[in-house]
Amino acid sequence: MMTLYYAPGACSMAAHIVLEESGEKYQPQKVDLAGGEQRTDAYLKINPQGRVPALRLDNGEPLAENTAILPYLGKRFGLWPSEALAEAKALSLIGFFAASVHPAHAHVGRPERYAADPSAFPTLKETGLKTFHNYLKQIDGRLAGREWFGDQYSVVDPYGFVFYTWGVRRELPMAELKNYTAFKDRMLKRPAVTRVVEDEKVKV
Ligand SMILES: N[C@@H](CCC(=O)N[C@@H](CS)C(=O)NCC(=O)O)C(=O)O
Fold this sequence. Notes:
By secondary structure, this protein is an alpha+beta fold. Helices cover 54% and strands 8% of the residues. Strands 2-1-3-4 form a 4-stranded mixed sheet, with helices on one face.
């Protein structure tokens, strides 16, 4: 059985939703990020980067990084495009989310990663929030006239959903993003999504 190491409201919510939708039995393992559990020796053996998500596979091997975990789960559970170009587009979005959208938000929540001097934190947070908001607007544009990010529902959708909830957390005017908001409402119609949102006590 696979184990998902996750933290409420974190980017691990994407894999959490996928596992919940899969119908397969898995072990959800909460990691106490506020208490620093991600930096303990035991957890660093699972993910040397000290981050969630991490997945312990059926054979006991750990797998880290959303860019690997989500395609792996998607292929396993039929939530991944099989056609070459559709797959490339899914990878392109996952790359954009992991390498641009997520780090922009990290400037707001974890400015200490980017500067040692606390006097730099306010400007890091302000610029990070502006950049993050601009990415959310781009995402809204991508969703125009679409039900899901790809032609069919895939693991990219729960990942995109995470950033909507982060926009809500940062009190950005999310209702102005009409396509993204309609997508969020479609996501919330999926029973697995509402189960995870309730379990992780996420505001949407
Ligand atoms: N590149 C990683 C980033 C994972 C990441 O930054 N996770 C955050 C939660 S959203 C985390 O574990 N933070 C803990 C910390 O910063 O100490 C991925 O996409 O899987």
